[in-house]
Design a protein that fits this description.
Blueprint: H1 2-25, E1 38-39, E2 44-46, E3 52-53, E4 61-67, H2 72-84, E5 92-99, H3 107-120, E6 124-129, H4 133-137, E7 146-150, E8 156-160, H5 166-181
Parallel strand pairs: 4-5, 5-6
Antiparallel strand pairs: 1-3, 2-6, 4-7, 7-8
Length: 186
């Protein structure tokens, strides 16, 4: 009996360590590529219904906003500032990933609104995360908009998961311009 209890404790410890290790491996780290994730089917994907994968975020600078539907208005002024700078679309791509699970609004309503936006503004990619997969796997914030800047090699060079301020907006824009000027979009 005593040996069985010891074995069970060791098994529990081993399983706990494996789960902890697996959960920490996926988080976003600066100067490293994003952990590979595919959103498809009932989990989400591109607004046109096709699969989305972060492995496609190479060969240009990628600005990613991960937001809940209620946080979209918070990032709108920053989106407008970046749009006004007229960065070449060959060098900078913007992806807005919407966490649809973070609201009581039905997915069908969100999809309709986002499809309308996507038709109006073809310079941005719209993605739905219907089951908070990226939120959990990348260890992002539920309470604030998440902003990631990826260089042309697919490495995270800017990560912000806290309240959005003018100072953070300036840092982000400076980082975008630095990457473009250094030719790091390829």
């Amino acid at each position: 009996m005593f040996i069985r209890v010891i074995k069970n404790k060791w098994i529990l410890l081993a399983v706990t360590l494996i789960l902890f290790t697996a959960s920490t491996i996926a988080q976003v780290e600066l100067q490293k590529n994003l952990p590979n994730i595919i959103l498809s089917g009932t989990n989400g994907g591109n607004i046109d219904g096709s699969d989305w994968t972060n492995t496609n975020l190479t060969n240009k600078i990628n600005l990613i906003y991960y937001v809940s539907p209620s946080q979209q208005k918070v990032v709108e002024p920053l989106l407008e500032k970046i749009d006004k700078n007229n960065y070449p679309v060959e060098e900078l791509s913007t992806t807005i990933i919407i966490n649809t699970k973070a609201t009581w609004i039905p997915n069908s309503v969100i999809v309709g609104k986002v499809k309308g936006r996507a038709k109006e503004d073809t310079t941005k990619n719209y993605v739905l995360d219907k089951k908070e997969i990226l939120l959990k796997e990348w260890k992002l914030s539920e309470d604030n908009p998440n902003i990631l800047l990826i260089n042309g090699k697919g490495e995270v060079v800017f990560l912000h998961t806290d309240e959005l301020t003018k100072e953070i907006e300036s840092k982000l824009i400076n980082q975008i311009e630095l990457l473009i000027n250094k030719g790091e979009s390829k």
